[in-house]
Structures are given as structure tokens and as C-alpha cells.
Amino acid sequence: MISERHVTLLLPTETASAAVVNTAVPRAAEAFGLGAGAALKLTLAVEEVFLYLLDAASRERRMELDIIPRPTAVEVAFGFEARTLDLGALNLTAQADACAFLEQEDFAQVGLLLAASAVDRMRLEHLGAGRMRLALELDRDYPEPPAPAAVDFEPQGPFRLELAPASELLQEACLRVLARHAAGDLPRMIRAPGMLMDLVAGGEAKAMVALDGRERVCGLLCWTGRNAKTITFHGPYVSLSAKREETARRLLDVFLQGVAKSGASGVMTPLASDLLPSGEYEGLGSLDRLLPDGAKQVRHAAFRLIAEDMGATVWAHPAIQEFLEREYERLDLVRDLRSVVSLGESRPESSVFSASLEVGPGVALLRPLMEGRDASANIGRHVSALRAKGFPNILFELDLAHGWQAAMAGLLADNGFKPRMVHPLGGRSDLVIFQHEFPVAP
Amino acid sequence: MNSLSLHSLVPEHVRRFEPYTPSRPDPVLMRMYGVEHLHRLNNNENALGPPNAARLAIEAFHSERAAIYPSGDCFLLREALAERFGKLPEQFLVGNGSCEVITSVIKAFCGPGDNIVTADKTFAVYEWVAEFSGFEARLTPLRDYAFDPEAMLAAMDARTKIAFVCNPNNPTGTYWSEAALCAFMDAVDNRCIVVVDEAYLEYVDKPDFPDGMRLMEHYPNLVVFRTFSKMYGLAALRIGYLCASQELVDMVRRTHIVYSVNTQAQAAAAAAIADDAGHIAATRRMVAEGRTILEGCFTRLGLEFVSGEGNYIMARAPLSDTLLYRKLMKRGVMVRTMTGFRFPNWIRVSLVQRPVMEEFCQVLEDVLGA
Hints:
By secondary structure, chain A is of the alpha+beta class. Chain A contains twelve helices and 19 strands. Chain A has helices spanning 17-31, 36-56, 98-103, 107-118, 167-180, 188-191, 193-201, 244-259, 318-330, 375-388, 403-406, 409-414; strands spanning 7-11, 63-70, 73-81, 121-128, 131-139, 160-162, 205-211, 217-224, 230-238, 266-269, 282-290, 296-305, 312-316, 335-339, 352-358, 363-370, 393-399, 417-423, 431-436. In chain A, the strands form four sheets. In chain A, strands 6-7-8-9-10-12-11 form a seven-stranded mixed beta sheet, sandwiched between helices. In chain A, strands 1-2-3-5-4 form a five-stranded antiparallel beta sheet, covered by helices on one side. The radius of gyration of chain A is 23 Å and the shape is globular. Chain B is of the alpha/beta class. In chain B, 40% of the residues lie in helices and 15% in strands. The A-B interface holds A 1-2, 131, 227, 252-253, 256-257, 260-264, 266, 279-282, 304-311, 332-334, 336 and B 3, 7, 15-19, 21, 23-24, 29, 32-33, 120, 124, 127, 318-320, 322-323, 325-327, 329-330, 337, 339-342, 344-345.
């Protein structure tokens, strides 16, 4: 949802409009909480993309530019109309082609790839009738605090849940969790409590803190995904040795009651806590993670539906048909699998993938933004580039609501990816998460 | 041409509202789940169907009459209701199911800034209609699975226009006695409208259960809702009604849609209340037998359950209710998951004929034992 505070510019599709962009973006970005350096970085990225899109956008239509404050980031989104568009340089891997672009004096492509490497996230939406929306997002910086010493105590009196914890209470709860868990086992919003505090204050996350009778922090559970089909939760984290199951149960029950009428279809946790009551949450499967010290960690994901399953139709490539049938049977989910393959139909030249990178734990998550004839080679380029940058954990996510995404399963298999889990209703429909085999057996 | 911006046209309270998705039709569900039969134990329907008189009225409907508008204000049905309950026809308002009369009452009494008060774990439509209409729904926790009068009174303020009490409560089956209801009405002291939803009244056979129709003679702010969907087996025809003082109904009528109740429904409902004694007795016998069977089953399986009034029982599953739903559906049994009622891991099961109850028990035992 777009904030009521967002700024919208309607710009003539002409080069002179760049001056307006260069004035409005940094001012709005700073007003929306980015530091001066980050605002400049975002402005440069936006300018490059704007100039590039001028060539592709319809001259009869003005280009919309939304500058949107997010609780932990600033987003700039371009709305435009274009029949054909080559956004290949937005790929992370295009940086490797910079020299080639320069040699060919294709400076527009150079600008595009600079923009892609400057922002934290990109999102491309096809709105129909040639309308597109390309969003760039740059996060605010949040420091990760050193883990404090663990504090343990016997909880006193009846404990209660604080459903709208004040920022300082949330911070204290995160620090208690950090003291108990390895940072690698925690999501970024808890490793960097300032991020969670901003997300909660901005309404994009919710959290609850368990307190004992003396108002001491005993546990934490937080979740994101307002207006999404699936709510992603983290926890329950209980920072005590005593009454762990009881505290966890209260946190989970109140969480479920709170989201029961949110309209979401299910809840999911990407790193299942050992405090999840067995049987009440269903295992989705696991992903392997190679840690910086060479050790291998297995991360189990779990979920449960909130609403009764309505069944669904999903697209399935033969490469994952058997895997999907097995997983749907195991999860007792009813799905009509409709086969899809690529049959040489016309596609744009360049595919585009977005890459979400977690540098510390070395995790890269790729998602397709646009299909293209070079998809297989592009997957290979991404793997090579990510390996070269030191990312051992490479994931790829396909949304089976889209036939063109499902059709990429074969290309992923050809490039060393294996399907690892189905996340029911994790996207527009079910998501399949693929993991690339490790470069060296851990 | 400007592009359509729904964001700017739709009010905030509607934009953040999630649409309700009803379950699919039986043939679609049966195909999806690969079953050849489906026992619907999810909607508290009366498995015996409508009373005989209502069946005859439905069958007597000639297709030519489909071209003629129904009685816009359910004239004859309101006369029949008045005669049955010793009221004036003007004290009744008939709607397309109770959802419509809930909407009409909220529209009649609530304005910007107003609120309604009800429980957090009850029939969801009071909360639902209030919120999509832009009014606050104040939800109070149940106490021992029952509406908590003190909590409701504490939640009320000068902007509270309506208190909704579901009696007996769906899904817990608990009820307020006449003494409890009168004490609440006295404490409210005409500060707001009190709606008592008696959708399951005909299933209750307890001497202390209040008769809202009688009590409204003492409490001018009392509105009673009843329905033909549950005991009378006319759920498909969508017909329910409210009864209140003539003055109060006159206000609600201003916001009420006329012509929303079809001719067949009006005729079937009028016939149903004219000859219902045998039907109610037979249904109560079926429900009592079903209750005994299910209570025994849940006890054998060691499951916690809440068994009160109404034609349903709620039980706590040892696994996610939504997973249990899917497993039962694969065996041709449909129950209501209760997470949406804010009872995570509970299911609600409608009480129907013995063979179906026994099949449900067997399937549940198989699924939980697997």
C-alpha cells in the first residue's frame, strides 16, 4: 500500500524532466529518513533508470514517479507504458558486462547496471495493456548491536502479553533474544532491532512481548505481511529456562487469534522454532545453509493455514511435476497441476531477475522479474557472479501462479538447482523454492 | 483518458478489508478432493430439511410466478409471524437472511465515530458488517466460553449504539439465562440498542432460557433476531427476521432493502411456522442423539470439547484445524475450522443423523490414529 505521505510526479517523457527528478528525489528521500549519502545514491540510480526508460516509454503518456516512504526504506517507482523493453542491464550479473557496454559505447546500459547495483531491491510489475511499474528500494542503515549477556530468572506471578510494545520494550526483547541465539539463526529485523522498531511503528510488522508478573521480558514473537496471503512470523523466542513451552504456547495462540480474521490464508516461519507445538504446524521442508566457517546448517520451515483450503490450479513444468505431486500429497493440499513448457514462443531478448542479498550469512535469493530468451544463460551468469562474490547459499523462487515462471523450472534444473520446498500461497499462488548445489561438498 | 485509480475512489476502511471467500459448491469440492460423497457438517444446517408444510409450499411454486415481484415487505409472512408470536405485523422486518437485518440495524443506528460491542469469539457477521461500514467493533473476550456481561458493559461508551449478544452463542453453545439477560438490560438502561440473536433458539429446551419476544415488552431497546436457516431448514432460500417495538422497527425499515426476500422463501417460511411442532421435536431428537455420539467419540479420543445448546459441538484437535479439515475432506467429511473464530485448532461439527455421526467418528478416529 502506498503511504498517504508519498510524493507523485507526473513527468513529460523528455530529457528535461531529469532535472525535476534530480531535485525532487533527494529532498523527498531525506525527508523520508534516508541519510544524505543514501539519498544521493538513490537519486543517481533513479536518474539513470529514468533516462533509460525515456527511450522505451510511450511519448504520448507522461511517466509517473512515486517517491514512497517505507518504514525502513525509501521506494521510488516508475509507472510507464512501453511495448518492448530490454531491462537486461538491471540484472546483478550485468556488472560483468560493463566493459562490453563501454566498448560498445552503450552508456545507457552502463547507467542501468549502476542503478541496479546501488539499490537493495527491485520489483517489476506488468499492469496490463503495456503499462508497467518498476520500483527501486533503498534501505536505511541499521547497526547490529553486540549480543548482550544472557539474563535468566524464574518468572514471577501471572505473565501477560504486551500486544503493542513500546519501542524500548521491543528493543529490550530483541537484545534478550540476541543473547540467547546465534545471530545466524535470527532474521535481520531482530539482529538489527532498530529495523523491527521502525517496521512496527510503520505498521509493516507486528510484535508481542511476554512479560512476567514483575514486567520482565520473557519472550518475543513478531510477524510481517499485512495484506499478504501468507503472514511470515519469527519465533516464538523465549529467553528463559523456565516455563518455555507455556510462554511459547501463549505467544502462538494470541498470534493466531490476532491474525485469524486478517484475511491471510496462512502463516509461515522460515526458521521453525523448536518451541512450535508438534502437529500444529506442518513442516514445509528444509534448506541447507553453508556458514562462513564451512559448517552446514539445516533450516526447517513450517507453516499452517488459517483458512480452509480452497484448492488451486498451479502451473507445473515436467522437471518438477513429480516433486510437486509428492509434496502436495504429503501436505494434503488439493492442487490441479497444469503442465507448462516453453515451446519456442516469442519472448523478449533479455530476462531480468531480482536478487535479494544477505551479505553476512552469504544468502542470495533470486526471483524472476521478466522472462527472456537468455534465461538459462542468465541463471548461469547469476550463479557464477554470486559465487565470485562469496555467496555459497543461492536460492531461486518461482511463483506457480505464472506459467512463464513455472516454465523456468527446467532451466533451473539444467543449471544445478534442486526444488527443496513448496510454500503454499506464499506468493500469488504457491511458491517453489530451489536451492543451488553447494560448490564444494560441505 | 485518465487511468482508473481505485485507491483514490475506495474508502480506507474498505481498502483494508479482506473479502470473505465462501466454500466452493459441493460438486467442485468433491472433484477437488477426489471423493464420491460429502457430508456437510460445517454450516449447522438441519439435515432433516424443512418441515413438511414448507416443502409443500416450495413445491407449489409455479415457474410462471417467477416473473412477478415478491411482496416487497413480506406482508403475509409478517402477518403470520404476528399471529404466531402475539405481536403486530409492524413489529417484524424480514430480510435476506439474518446478515441483511444485521446490516439494516447497523445502518439505522450507527454514524461516523460510533461503535458496536460484541464478543471476540462469536458469529462474525456483527463485527464484519460494522467494520466494512466504517464503524468500530469492540470485541470483548468470552468468559468460560460465554458472553461476559461485565466486559461488554465496560466496553460501552457514549458512542456505543448497539450491543450484539448471540444467545445461544455460536460456536460455543453457551447462553445467558433470563435472569442474566434481564440484569444486562437493566445495566444498559436504554443507553443503546441490544440485539439478541436467537438463531438457534428452537434447539434450546431449557426452562431458564429467555424468550426475547416476551422480554421486549419490558425493554424498548431490545431487538430479537431469528432465522429460518437453522431449525427450519430453509438456508438456501435466505430468510431471517427481526422483531422489536413498532417505533424501533420503523427506524430500521428506513435503511432496509425492500424486495430482497423472494416469493418462494416467504411462502415456505409462513408454512413452516404454521406447522412446526413435529419438525422441531424430530430435529431435537436427532441433535440429542448426535450429541451423545460425538461426546462419546471425543471422550474416547481424549479430545477437549464444548457441548452446549444448538446443533453443533466444538472440539479441540491435537493438530492444526486446517490440516484436520483437509484430511477429513479427503474422506468425504466437511467440518468448520475454528481458527477464523479465533479458536485455533478447534473444529465445529454439526449434529445430524446417526449414520453420518458414526461415519464422522470413524473417519476422525482413523485420521487421528494415522
